[in-house]
Amino acid sequence: MAAGPWRRPTEELDPDAAISVRGLVKRYGDRAAVDGIDLDIRRGEIFALLGPNGAGKTTTVEVLEGFRDRDDGEVRVLGVDPATGGRRWKADLGIVLQSGAGDSQLTCRELLQAQASYYPDPRDPGEVLALVGLTEKAGARGRTLSGGQRRRLDVALGIVGRPKLLFLDEPTTGFDPEARRQFWALVRELRELGTTILLTTHYLDEAEALADRVGVIAHGRVLEIGVPGELGGRGLAPAVVSWTEDGVRRTAETATPTAFVRELAARFPGEVPDLAVSRPTLEDTYLRMIGDRP
Ligand code: ATP
Hints:
- The chain contains nine helices and twelve strands.
- The chain is of the alpha/beta class.
- The chain starts with 18 loop residues before the first strand and ends with a helix.
């Protein structure tokens, strides 16, 4: 099924949203990197922005952060137009860029203390180190940290100012599986503390695990926005049941997996060998959506 074009919910900006965007356009020369994006991100949600390389994610996020001007469209971030956002507005943002600041001669604690001094109501640096699991590295210089630890330090620097809105740009690149799980727990904890989070990632399992909603963009346009379980009609996709019978692996597609498994179970005296029921993953759905594009 081809993904339909994303239609704007209303013409008006949503005044209650953490981020509200209508008709955002950014051109480089005569090419539109962002070509009319509409987006509302609710306060308190984790929103993942997905899309292939060059889709326009970073450009969009940089406009939202106030780092890049736009050619057209309306944008409000925490109620303010980023093009005119001042210091107080910036103090409510936490930004974790792709390339971090971990290559420092300063210790983790010193880096956090320095960063905290820029904000009116910072978190305690020691608490932040504990939150990201770097307490034991408080006295270590940034440059002596492993890749995954540096990324945690980047996040620590991004949240020490107690942001209302946190931008995480590909935060877990280079993490080992355990570090990723720990990082996901941290992101969920930040949401519990009331932080709105805009995440860009190429890891579809990360988006599925963390995001309340995801937005898929390609060629500077939104293809679809939805909860991960329903994106691209995923919630309605048939289930695949697989099992082993007479030494042969068998699979069947069915819209009614419960009834199917019940019938299957009646044919076997005990457990159905190697029984598994699966649905398309977010990655399957995403790749199909992207592949549908011209
Ligand atoms: P990735 O997943 O690779 O980070 P992305 O979705 O973040 O990609 P962008 O970095 O926003 O994509 O780039 C969107 C398009 O705009 C690309 O075609 C890119 O080449 C182009 N672009 C980005 N920055 C500039 C710039 N400063 N000058 C000219 N073109 C640019």
